[in-house]
Amino acid sequence: MSALAAPRFAPFTSFLDFQRQLQLQIAADLDALFAATDLPKPLIDACRYVMSNQGKLVRPLLVAAAFVSTSHEDSFETPALSADQIKDENSAETELLNQVNAQLEVQSYFDMCRRAALAVELLHTYSLVHDDLPCMDDDALRRGQPTAHVAFDEATALLAGDVLQTLAFEVLTIKLPNFAPFNPLIAGELLAVFAPRARRMVAGQMLDLNAEAKANISQNELEAIHCDKTGALIEAAMLMGAICGNATAPERIALQDCAQHIGLAFQVQDDILDVTMSTDALGKPAGSDEKLDKSTYVKLMGIEAASHYAQSLFDQGRQAITTTLKDNPNHKALLELIDWLWARQK
């Protein structure tokens, strides 16, 4: 397949280049998505407002990193012509057709990865918009700018979150310019992974609210909350990238194991940053967990023990994929992403 263009995002060279490439891709694809939808003002303005202020893009990065870490050229390969076919006078035309079909298949898998990356970021942003509402955490700052209900109004923010959630599923099948037609088989697999984990995320948010001001919550109870609230979408992101990369069954199992550790680690780290960093550094109100009397890992075990626990979870996440993905030269995309997550300060 060397004569064909490789899927974008690959080959992996450095994490910073990979991150910049994804940021540009997501921004362009969001423009295409919003141009293709017929949303009235101020709803479209609110959607653009919350989506254009890109955060860390952790979940789309996980989709893309899982994609390049599991993509195998031979899994997209069109079989070589047989001796009998080569004798055929139309063999040159047949070979060209095979090459074109192979290229289209590569593009189809890559474009489904683009759709998956958009889907997880849309769903994640919807959850942030709703989290910030007065009826939830009542926050006035997100990613360094006024939250949606402050910049617009509460009703518009509520509806913006609603429509971002629906677009998260629609984007997997909608007709979009500069995208290959959606692949129904891949889309079906993506939805089977995405939908139940989106539901788990919302259930986890309810469990988190239920745990506010609750005394003596155990570590098992806390992890049950965050395996759903934070971990479910991280798990979805990595599995969706693997599906688009045509990953093998052992690779998908390894990625799910990795995601479960990384999802918990990410939440433990968030709890630590909430009490150790300033509002300016975080881009959102510091100390909000304490204000809302939330159950956190810092509250449960203290900063130092929570930090050690987060590091052990990140280490287990790395170990889960190192052996299974080591034969893919691009597998370091995921490893460097995990290192970047561990080093983050907001």
Draw up the topology in text.
Layout: H1 15-36, H2 43-52, H3 58-70, H4 83-87, H5 91-131, E1 141-142, E2 145-146, H6 148-151, H7 154-170, H8 184-210, H9 219-229, H10 231-244, H11 249-276, H12 279-282, H13 288-291, H14 297-301, H15 303-325, H16 332-343
Antiparallel strand pairs: 1-2
Q: Key features?
A:
16 helices, mainly alpha, globular, 2 strands, disordered N terminus, 69% helix, two-stranded antiparallel sheet, Farnesyl Diphosphate Synthase, 346 residues
Tell me what the structure shows.
- The chain is 69% helix and 1% strand.
- It has 346 residues and is mainly α.
- The protein has a single domain (15-343), classed as Farnesyl Diphosphate Synthase (Orthogonal Bundle).
- A two-stranded antiparallel sheet has the order 1-2.
- Residues 1-7, 74-83 and 94-104 have low confidence and may be disordered.
Structural class: mainly alpha
- CATH homologous superfamily descriptor: Farnesyl Diphosphate Synthase
CATH architecture field: Orthogonal Bundle
Characterize the biggest β-sheet.
Answer: 2 strands, antiparallel
CATH topology: Farnesyl Diphosphate Synthase
**Number of alpha- plus pi-helical segments:** 16
How many domains in all?
Answer: 1
What number is the mean pLDDT? 85
Tell me the helix content.
55-70%
**CATH class annotation:** Mainly Alpha
Outline type: globular
Query: What would you report as the Rg, rounded to the nearest angstrom?
Result: 21 Å
Strand content: under 5%
